[in-house]
Design goal:
It contains two helices and no strands. It is an all-alpha fold and 56 residues long. It is rod-shaped, with a radius of gyration of 24 Å.
Length: 56
């Protein structure tokens, strides 16, 4: 029974900390574009940064 007296306040504290971290993530824009990263992986655009030189 003594464990419950420590467990309930500690879980409330952990819950409050997690809600604060979630709010900080939302305010920083971490969850703005949820679809973009998945689309970026699937539709890879070829950048021609490396252009092989023709031999003369």
């Amino acid at each position: 029974m003594d464990v419950i007296y420590w467990l309930i306040p500690s879980m409330i504290f952990v819950g409050v900390v997690l809600v604060i971290l979630l709010m900080m993530g939302v305010k920083s824009g971490q969850y703005d574009d949820l679809e973009g990263e998945g689309q970026r992986i699937l539709f890879d655009e070829d950048n021609d940064d490396f252009k092989p030189q023709k031999k003369s």
